[in-house]
Design goal:
Blueprint (H helix, E strand, L loop, with lengths): L2 E5 L2 E4 L4 E4 L3 E6 L2 E9 L4 E6 L12 H17 L5 E5 L1
Amino acid sequence: MTVQELQPREARHHSGAILRSRRFATQFELGGHVLTLGVEPGVRGGLYYLPNAPTWDDGTPVPHDVAAGMQKVIEEVERFWGHWPEFRAVL
């Protein structure tokens, strides 16, 4: 796992994805596309709501290989920040 902090609450994962964490949302950016995910405060980290069929904020579908690896990327960046995220699927 290689994570580089870009700014407070913004980091680049070795996959090239950038995570920007805000109070109730996190932006997952990859290849110029952004996906905003809902997040609630949890006990040891954020509670992320991952959509079953994610689409970028511009409405285009997230490729299956990106969607399949998204949770791992988020988890590694959150652990870099000292948090232990939880995930829930949104149907």
